[in-house]
Amino acid sequence: MYLPLFWLGVFFLISGAYSVRTVDKVASKPQQSITIPCSYDNNYKQNRMYLCKGNAWLSCNIIAHDGEEKENVEVTHHPTQNIFTVTMRNVQPTDAGSYWCAVAIGGIWTADEKAHFHLSVTEDPDLSVERSVVSGDVGGNMSVQCRYSNTYSSKKKSWCSFKDPKCSSVGGSVAPAGTKSQIRDDGAGTLSVEMMGVKETDTGWYWCEVGDLQIPVYLNITQHAAITIPTTTTCNYSGCVKESATPTFDEGTEGTDHLPKGALIGVSVTFGLLLLLTIIGVLAWREQNKQKEDYLNITPQDHRQNEHSASSEVEYNSVVFKKRNSERRLHQSHCPAVEDDHTIYSSVVNI
On the CB side of 80, how many CA atoms lie within 13 Å of its CA? Predict the structure, then answer.
């Protein structure tokens, strides 16, 4: 009874051993991120991908599936490249250990496809890369710099691609994907890879390999901006002459795109402020001129009318005080006669 179980376990261990492919040993500094690519056979595009942690496949713990949102682990499926990537963020020493890239098959008698890799977390990794993502244009050259420790100075060094199982070693002149390249080892801890005349199809995942260590690198190769030079043909009795116009660039590839995004925002804000200040200045100038015109349009006749209006509001009234006859007679009997010239007149002016 134990013998069939033994062979069943062997079947599960070796089944699909070469259907999923990844690196063997990688290293990262603490509190950094690292991305591990895992390739699979073309017939698994519709299957579920996941990451499992544990020394033994049969007892490992599933950490994340593709499409799930985890705090520090993400599994992303790229079906057009037959690759899914495992990104681990803010790695800690406790994250070190054995992992499995796996493709879910779902059959009772068919094991899931998987590939094993080991992660080390240390302050001074024995192998690292200057940039894990390198971008370039079609037809240009691309450079990758991998750093290794003195412990690995005498180890074999290679440049490999996930698209091709073959690797190119130091001194080789052909890259795994067929693009011409040069791989140099300065003997002081730097492995340099120079790929020349790259094509858009060279986009994808590669890795530097030193001894039993690997470090993944992603090359992003895009089409360079195309330049269009319109020509006009002028013909006369002596022949035809072609004239070239000013070169123009394809929309979205040149022009302002070569400026940094921050510079574009700064220019836009500055222009907006200048336009606002100009509008405010014009409005203030027009208001001041309007007030001057209103003042100058007042004629002398208007001044006279204003004066007349002011003077017409003043009223003059005369009041004459005369004594009654009875009072005059009384005074005459007691007082000397008063001459009429001493009559008092007063004027009251109402304003």
Answer: 3
